């Protein structure tokens, strides 16, 4: 089983790239729930919905067809 911090790293990279132009200082608050384990080698898709400076997100393992991070919320500045 892939450690949760590895999954968090994949998700954080997707949010930094997509929502913050690789500027980590723009991360103000973040909340999320780990909802299922990820196995090494699985593909993780991060789904992002933006509403102004609030971003909702979740991550899905494509191989398991399961949500692995759910109820994600990010506040950017």
Structure in words:
- It is a single chain.
- By secondary structure, the chain is of the alpha+beta class.
- The chain has a single domain (4-76), classed as Hotdog Thioesterase (Thiol Ester Dehydrase, Chain A), CATH 3.10.129.
- 21% of the residues lie in helices and 45% in strands.
- It has 1 helix and 4 strands, in the order αββββ.
- The chain has a 4-stranded antiparallel sheet, with helices on one face.
- β2 and β3 form a beta hairpin.
- The longest helix has 16 residues, at 4-19.
Features:
4 strands, Thiol Ester Dehydrase, Chain A, 77 residues, alpha+beta, 4-stranded antiparallel beta sheet
Topology at a glance:
Blueprint lengths: L3 H16 L7 E8 L9 E8 L2 E8 L4 E11 L1
Antiparallel strand pairs: 1-4, 2-3, 3-4
InterPro entries: HotDog_dom_sf, MaoC-like_dom
Protein name: MaoC-like domain-containing protein
Pfam families: MaoC_dehydratas
